[in-house]
UniProtKB/TrEMBL annotation:
It comes from Shouchella clausii (strain KSM-K16). One of its GO terms (molecular function) is peptidase activity. It holds the Pfam family DUF2268. Keywords: Hydrolase, Protease. InterPro entries: DUF2268 (IPR018728). This is Zn-dependent protease. GO terms for biological process: proteolysis. The lineage of its organism: Bacteria, Bacillati, Bacillota, Bacilli, Bacillales. Residues 86-293 form the DUF2268 domain.
Amino acid sequence: MNIQALRSDHIYRQVMQVPLAEKTELYREEMLAPFMKKWETQQVPYKAADPGGFDVMTINNFIFRAPEEMTPEISAELELISSDAFWQECEAVVARSLGLFTENGVKLKVSEYLFTILLGNPKSQSLLLNEGYSGDGGIPGYILCTLLPNAYTLPRMKPALAHEVNHNVRYQYIKWDHTVTLGELIVSEGLAENFATLLYGEELLGPWVSKTSAETLNRQIKPVLKEQLDVTGFDQIAPYLYGDELAKLQNFTPVGMPYSAGYACGYYLVQYYLKQTGKSIVEATITPAAQILDEVRGYWNETTIISD
């Protein structure tokens, strides 16, 4: 197993040193090209045929710092992700997370892993709703996390990376295509966050779970999501999974759901499943959602208790 860190801090400094007209292409080549197979899998064009068309830079600039912002003005925040110790700790998280699977008999189908940590776009409303950090690990072999670096977000890179590694392993076993359901994504997010808290503690529970109260979960979220588990099509799934605020930012139709409804629902659903079955989080991670959902029918009618 080979784990490689793409040192974004080094690339940011390279981009800072070139003229404005050269920044975008240098950034595209150095920061985004190493993730080419990820973009191809997601059918995101590496470079638009027409200037200003949709491509990887469109995705980048929505949530990450844009290349034209690579100037001395970002030096202070860049310094916060520039130590060798920071990158070594991040790599250790990825190794530890993957190792938990291999040590428990899970044969990984991917042997090469590339990860990086990117500076977030401080104007991104979706990133701000997520308290300044997020991640992307659904394409096996590739893991991206982003943050607005500060005392709150920096310690949370460890559970964020662990969360994304869990996705990375799950989707080596579970097929993701146009038929993916809301039920699968609720289960997937619940597995990933339980995996992260197992390794790094509930005190670092992500805001996509911690911001949801027991009353909201039991009275508003669970009764609705219970009836929508078979929904397919990302435009239909997103409002239930992310909630109305994030759905609106992506131009999807709101459905009356609070922030990250599916994440919170999934977190407690997976806890229920693990308790009911005695399975480990490692076993559960590679278990089909249909099987998990079949085992948790009692979850939907039981009042979930959320400890302080």
